[in-house]
């Protein structure tokens, strides 16, 4: 549709460059469309990079990052530690690429992956005049009883009578 409109505009006397600029296109793009080629014909290099890891080097990287001493660490941590020991196997990005290709990058570490759908509630008491947190608690449920308990415990810890304090909500 754009090609047809451009051809109509040029036939009517408009300059192609100005019409392209008005549409936010480059003249070369419209010329390529007029040639009948609508898809992107560019291709990447047809040869492997000169510094691509060989099969044995790749297996060495995998064996190292999966060794007992390193299996809980990410390549971001492994590569510098190996460098401190005078050993260089591959860059961080290459190590990540190798792990990703072997589907070993999902979760590396002793800690469990976070569980989705778990919510925690922070109960916070703040002295608004001094802008200081005077009491806090974290619970798995939202409850007025828990908030009241925090209020009385915090008042007691600071030596205040809970009946004489006016809460400010907001």
**Biggest sheet details:** 2 strands, antiparallel
Q: Note the run of SSEs as H and E.
A: HHHHHHEEH
- Low-confidence segments, given as residue ranges, are none
The count of domains is 3
For the largest beta sheet, what order do the strands appear in spatially? Answer: 1-2
Which percent range fits the helix content?
40-55%
Provide a count of the helices. 7
What is the CA-based Rg, rounded? 32 Å
Can you count the beta strands? 2
Residue fraction in strands: 5-15%
The computed structural class is mainly alpha
How far apart are the first and last residues' alpha carbons, in Å?
Answer: 57 Å
State the shape.
flat
Q: Average pLDDT, to the nearest integer?
A: 86
Question: What's the layout of helices and strands?
Answer:
Layout: H1 2-11, H2 16-23, H3 27-34, H4 55-65, H5 75-84, H6 92-101, E1 121-127, E2 132-139, H7 144-157
Antiparallel strand pairs: 1-2
Helix pairs in contact: 5-6
List descriptors.
mainly alpha, two-stranded antiparallel sheet, 9% strand, 42% helix
Q: Would you kindly provide a written description of the structure presented here, covering whatever features stand out?
A:
The chain has helices spanning 2-11, 16-23, 27-34, 55-65, 75-84, 92-101, 144-157, and strands at residues 121-127, 132-139. Helix content is 42%, strand content 9%. The chain is flat and about 90 Å long. A hairpin with a 4-residue loop joins strand 1 (121-127) and strand 2 (132-139). The chain folds into three domains: 2-34, no CATH class; 55-101; 121-164, no CATH class. The protein has a two-stranded antiparallel ribbon. By secondary structure, it is mostly helical. It has seven helices and two strands.
